[in-house]
Amino acid sequence: MKFNTPFEWFESSVNIALIGAGGSGSQALSALSKIDYSIKQLEHEGLNVTVFDPDTVSAANVGRQNFYPADIGQNKAVLLTHRANIFYGTNWKAHPVAFNPSEYDFRGFDIIICCVDKAQFRADLAKAGRDYYNAGFLLDMGNGSSTGQVIFGHLGKVCEGEIRLPNVFDYYPNLDGMKDDDTPSCSMQEALSKQDLFVNTGVVQPAMNLLWSLLRHGGLDHQGVYVDVRTGESSPINIMAA
Fold first, then answer.
1. I need a surface site. Which of 32, 76, 108, 142 has the fewest CB within 10 A?
2. What is the pLDDT of residue 186?
3. How far is the CA of 129 from the CAs of 1, 126, 140, 141, in angstroms?
4. What is the rounded CA–CA span in Å between residue 47 and residue 225?
5. Which of 28, 23, 73, 19 is closest to 211 using CA atoms?
């Protein structure tokens, strides 16, 4: 089964909300900048990205995330968005706050990219959008210490006769109520004891490949990927209608 890119994505800019600018989000924003620049060279209108993250850069973030020692103390969303705008001439927006699913009309975004590592937030996000028609898509990235998954699916309902791609919550309803380890890492050594250095990279790359395929090749023949950076294994998630 193949999923075809919505036609309107080729007629105007694609509105994207990037939620989280940390381990995966900071790398995803860099990749989005490259995608935006590249598709504009192909006469596409490009991407319109809004970044949400309330956190500031800490010493434990440097090295594992796309930050430098001089960035410590600055808000992640504001810093990275400003950097992207300077480097690529975009006019993307940053909100140094947590994204609250109950406060946003999901129809304002074509794609919501979730890079938040809290299971309950991911469940709440998917649940908040499920009663909307034309709510756009959810590109979810989740990872553990060395494994992860990427799932691209519809956030809400679709009209009769259309294919609906299941989202991460359709695959993993047990995200609702799942407990996370919220203990902050006070040093890079402690952070690396919890996650391999390149696990976020291993998740972001296939996620951005999905987005690139949608915008460059007109669709998808799979809707996600499972990865294991220690074994090098990668398995596609085949398209299934919900």
1. 108
2. 41
3. 25, 5, 14, 17
4. 23
5. 28
- DSSP state string for 195-206: S-TTHHHHHHHH
For the stretch 36-64, pLDDT in tens is 999 999 999 999 999 999 999 999 999 88
End-to-end Cα separation, the chain, in angstroms: 13
Total number of residues shown for the chain = 242
Question: Cα(130)–Cα(167) distance, rounded to whole angstroms?
Answer: 10
* CA distances (Å), origin 35, targets 138, 193, 230: 18, 32, 27
Nearest residue to 152 (alpha-carbon basis) of 173, 138, 131: 138
Rounded-to-integer distance, Cα 131 and Cα 126, Å: 10
